[in-house]
Design a protein that fits this description.
The protein has 312 residues and is mainly β. The chain has two helices and 15 strands. Strand 12 and strand 13 form a beta hairpin.
Length: 312
């Protein structure tokens, strides 16, 4: 009985359960909508105007159907710009048809300047919830390693020129804590789509390579947040060059990130797009010091049992 108890403890601690979750591929089953009955124009499909991400059956969704809401009262909200605001240019976040060559029918499309008019600097924010993390509340993951993989297609060459620089990238993705503080950001700047990143609102750092710049090219981004030890790892796979760049490995975040609470998307006024797709989360518990002690005790119990069996 004692040996059985040791083996159970060892198995529970050494082989923690893994949960797979995803913000989604922005298809109807993920809770994203295109076309009527909302509106025929692009701005009318803005994710802040309906229950985006809150219906559909994928990843444990509740089902249901699309419904208009009071703007900014769902999972998505406009921080700056957005939804055309009565202007002639395009700046919004919508479910968008996938550019040619992409595997899935739709992507999340953010744009600020793909018409004959220049938009304005735009920022949106999304609230993570338990559906993103396979039923786990974001606030329950403070002692976990959260891996985030997604496909990303930014483009800085918009109407009106290109004003993005290393210190002020054109298209960015922000990973935020519960208060909305930016703990890690990636972005691109210049006509060559140079990739940059920064930690905790510090100085932007050039990653030393470019994103695939063509309209149809989605690169793979992997971020890993160790929320117990407050570190981040970052790698980037260029699909055109078929090159993987390991940029950061367990780099200190510089402060306590309680949990992944929000995601921000930003674009400068003249940019043509900031497209995102196939967001996937993997959550793994980090053994606490007490759990590590149990691992050692479990190993000791198994070794002792083995020695006694051999002696017998």
């Amino acid at each position: 009985m004692k040996i059985t108890t040791w083996l159970i403890i060892f198995a529970l601690v050494v082989m923690p359960s893994t949960a797979h979750a995803y913000l989604g591929g922005f298809e109807s089953g993920d809770g994203y909508h295109t076309g009527s009955p909302l509106a025929s124009n692009l701005a009318g499909r803005d994710v802040t105007l309906y229950n985006a991400g809150q219906y559909g059956t994928n990843n444990g969704g509740p089902g249901g159907s699309v419904a208009l809401i009071t703007p900014d009262t769902g999972l998505w909200r406009v921080v700056t710009g957005g939804r055309l605001l009565g202007q002639l240019s395009d700046y919004y976040v919508i479910q968008h048809f996938a550019p040619g060559g992409h595997s899935s029918p739709n992507v999340l499309g953010m744009t600020t300047g793909n018409s004959a008019f220049v938009g304005i600097d735009t920022e949106y924010q999304y609230d993570f919830d338990d559906r993103d993390f396979d039923g786990n509340l974001p606030s329950s993951l403070g002692s976990s390693v959260v891996n985030m993989d997604f496909l990303w297609c930014p483009q800085n060459a918009g109407i009106g020129g290109n004003a993005s620089t290393l210190s002020d990238p054109g298209a960015t993705i922000q990973l935020q804590d519960s208060s909305g503080a930016n703990f890690f950001e990636i972005g691109t700047y210049g006509a060559g789509e140079a990739v940059a990143y920064r930690i905790l609102g510090g100085t932007w750092i050039d990653a030393g390579f470019n994103a695939s710049a063509a309209f149809n090219d989605f690169d793979q981004v992997n971020l890993s947040f160790d929320l117990l030890n407050d570190t981040v790892s970052f790698s980037f796979f260029e699909t055109v060059a078929t090159t993987n760049h390991v940029v950061l490995t367990n780099a200190p975040l510089g402060a306590n990130m309680d949990y992944l609470g929000h995601m921000g998307l930003t674009m400068k006024a003249e940019n043509s797009k900031n497209f995102l797709d196939d967001v996937d989360f993997t959550v793994n518990p980090v053994p606490e010091p007490g759990s590590l002690a149990l691992i050692l005790l479990g190993n000791l119990g198994v070794a002792t049992f083995a020695r006694r069996r051999t002696a017998a």
